[in-house]
């Protein structure tokens, strides 16, 4: 197919995928049929076909369009193989938005938990990219824990034959499998094990040979497909507050076995997109909830297991399937009624009812968490994020009703809105968009206190704790931890020795914060009992129970806002012991 003709047909398909109505289904099917019969000689054009077919698998006009899209996706391994045999440049499939196509190769530096999972998921197909690794210092510091007598060589000699040492120890098998097993056998905890492995920063390489693992094929076939015979819902048609005011969605808790299936799916989805999220790697299969949102949209949300939770904030992660196709991931972190939300639609699907799906994800999150104040982290709207600046992400949230948390940025926003309204064709410049992305944006729901969380940051609480450690304990982290636990335990009237290890870890984290409250010992007994219940709930099975308890304790909320909203000007309020 001549290049110009191929480009024209691909462009028509890309335009057709978001056009719905009379005759559009037949047109999309003809274009798919034409392209399915063609041999592609360049990778960039093949990737365009792949992305259009994947979109149409999620947003099909008709059953025939869906089947045609599936056939093209199923043909990808063979097409990729033929291009590779011809010596084509495959680098387009190594980019962030082109990765994970069936038949291609991927390379990434993964954390221990994901690396271990990947080795189990693709046994024998994952290898260390030795040709791109030469961190001898890291190997010299860590490998002696795994290889007896390596110190004799690594500590004093030059030109260490690292791989020969490994080959002599591993026996039959693969380098990476042996390393993972060796780290698992170390007599240390899971967190320390992961930290130690991660220091190696090993690049891993694998072929995307399993079609169901790839971006091309990691979709499911639900019982019912929603076919789009009318135009997609646009952002201007979405009234977020009206959507959130609808009756709470019906949520279904999955069994552990089904929860495990969801965890496997999201790890596959993230791995082939070069994404590694704390909650998708370590999600608790016992906590998975499902929400059927209509229009072929199914969402899953889950929490963290007790031993992997954050020190203070509750954590939720999730994903959305559209007609069985993974189209986004979700992250929410919060305490009390405040919740910071991250929502990332995969590049392929950013023209697919994103605002309406976002509204449904917030409905799900609010029903699960009870949050009243929704906050968007600056990165989501463009801080150190060129992609968000180019897409005008700030205006996506603003037009849904969010406001900047800083007064000067609210004034700038209103000034830009006036320009947009009075100047035809006016677009906010990247410079101003970067300025607008300097602060969180907020959506406050009925029952929330306006502006209460505008200046809050969990990071600021951490700064206060560490400032106290430096000024009162000479920078000794073990000393401040012990003294804080001892003091807070006396104040709350508890005996930590009777608590289980996870409860004691939660107590240690919370003690660092509670020790910053000058009048904690004068709190009423009922409030102190609430604190004990909150801390123990954080180590319990249901992380959302912990979050709900923080929403009820108003005295604690007040102190958290105080500690997280203002920079400490002196140490006079720190308790001394």
CATH class of the largest domain: Alpha Beta
Give the name of the CATH architecture of the largest domain.
3-Layer(aba) Sandwich
Number of helices: 26
- Average pLDDT score: 94
Low-confidence stretches: 568-577
Number-wise, the strands total 12
Shape: globular
Amino- and carboxy-terminal Cα gap: 80 Å
Give the number of domains: 4
Strand order of the largest sheet: 4-5-6-7-8-9-10-12-11
Helix content range: 40-55%
**What is the alpha-carbon Rg in Å?**
27 Å
Largest sheet: 9 strands, mixed
Strand residues, percent: 5-15%
CATH T-level fold name of the largest domain: Aminopeptidase
SSE-based structural type: alpha+beta
Based on the model shown, name its key terms.
Aminopeptidase, disordered C terminus, 26 helices, three-stranded antiparallel β-sheet, 11% strand, 4 domains, 577 residues, alpha+beta
Spell out the blueprint of helices and strands.
Layout: H1 3-16, H2 24-36, H3 43-58, H4 63-74, H5 76-85, E1 105-109, H6 112-121, E2 126-128, H7 136-142, H8 151-154, H9 162-170, H10 175-185, H11 190-198, E3 203-207, H12 240-244, E4 252-253, H13 256-271, H14 278-281, E5 289-294, E6 297-302, E7 314-322, E8 325-335, E9 338-345, H15 354-369, E10 373-376, H16 378-381, H17 386-391, H18 393-398, E11 403-404, H19 407-422, H20 430-436, E12 441-444, H21 458-472, H22 477-492, H23 501-514, H24 525-538, H25 543-552, H26 554-565
């Amino acid at each position: 197919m001549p290049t110009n003709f191929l480009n024209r047909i691909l462009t028509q398909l890309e335009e057709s995928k978001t056009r719905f109505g009379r005759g559009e289904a037949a047109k999309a099917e003809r274009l798919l049929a034409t392209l399915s019969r063609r041999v592609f000689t360049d990778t960039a054009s093949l990737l365009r076909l792949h992305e259009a077919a994947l979109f149409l698998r999620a947003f099909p006009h008709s059953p025939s369009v869906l089947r045609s899209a599936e056939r093209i996706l199923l043909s990808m391994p063979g097409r990729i193989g033929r291009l590779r045999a011809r010596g084509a440049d495959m680098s387009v499939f190594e980019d962030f938005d082109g990765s994970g196509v069936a038949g291609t190769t991927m390379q990434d530096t993964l954390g221990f938990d994901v690396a271990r999972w990947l080795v189990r998921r693709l046994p024998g197909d994952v290898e260390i990219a030795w040709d791109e690794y030469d961190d001898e210092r890291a190997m010299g510091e860590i490998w002696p824990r795994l290889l007896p007598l390596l110190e004799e060589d690594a500590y004093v000699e030059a030109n260490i034959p690292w791989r020969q040492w490994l080959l002599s120890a591993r026996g039959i098998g693969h380098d990476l499998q042996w390393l993972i097993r060796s780290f698992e056998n170390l007599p240390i905890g899971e967190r320390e094990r992961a930290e130690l492995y991660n220091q190696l920063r090993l690049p891993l390489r694998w072929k995307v040979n399993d079609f169901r693992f790839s971006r091309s094929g990691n979709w499911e076939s639900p019982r019912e497909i929603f076919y789009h015979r009318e135009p997609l819902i646009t952002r201007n048609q979405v009234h977020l507050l009206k959507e959130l005011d609808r009756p709470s969605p019906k949520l279904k808790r999955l069994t552990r076995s089904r929860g495990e299936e969801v965890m496997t799916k999201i790890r596959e989805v993230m791995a082939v997109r070069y994404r590694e999220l704390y909650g998708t790697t370590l999600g608790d299969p016992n906590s998975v909830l499902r929400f059927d949102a209509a229009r072929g949209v199914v969402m899953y949300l889950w929490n963290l297991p007790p031993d992997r939770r954050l020190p203070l904030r509750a954590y939720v992660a999730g994903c959305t399937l559209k007609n069985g196709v993974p189209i986004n991931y979700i992250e929410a972190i919060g305490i009390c009624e405040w919740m910071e939300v991250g929502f990332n639609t995969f590049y392929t699907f950013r023209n697919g009812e994103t605002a309406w799906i976002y509204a449904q994800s917030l409905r799900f999150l609010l029903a699960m968490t009870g949050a009243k104040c929704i906050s968007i982290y600056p990165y989501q709207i463009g801080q150190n994020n060129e992609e968000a600046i180019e897409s005008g992400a700030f205006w996506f949230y603003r037009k849904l009703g969010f406001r900047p948390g800083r007064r000067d940025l609210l004034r700038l926003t209103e000034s830009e809105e006036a320009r947009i309204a009075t100047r035809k064709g006016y677009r906010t410049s990247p410079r101003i968009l970067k300025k607008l992305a300097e602060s969180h944006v907020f959506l406050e729901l009925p029952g929330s206190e306006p502006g209460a969380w505008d200046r809050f940051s969990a990071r600021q609480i951490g700064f206060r704790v560490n400032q106290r450690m430096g000024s009162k304990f000479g920078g000794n982290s073990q000393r401040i931890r012990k003294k804080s636990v001892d003091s807070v335990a006396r104040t709350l009237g508890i005996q930590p020795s009777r608590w289980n290890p996870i409860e004691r870890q939660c107590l240690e984290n919370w003690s660092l914060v509670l020790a910053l409250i000058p009048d904690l010992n004068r709190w009423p007994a009922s409030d102190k009992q609430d604190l004990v219940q909150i801390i123990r709930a954080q180590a319990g099975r249901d992380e959302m129970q912990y979050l709900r308890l923080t929403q009820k304790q108003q005295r604690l909320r007040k102190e958290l806002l105080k500690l997280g909203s203002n920079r400490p000007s002196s140490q006079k309020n720190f308790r001394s012991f």
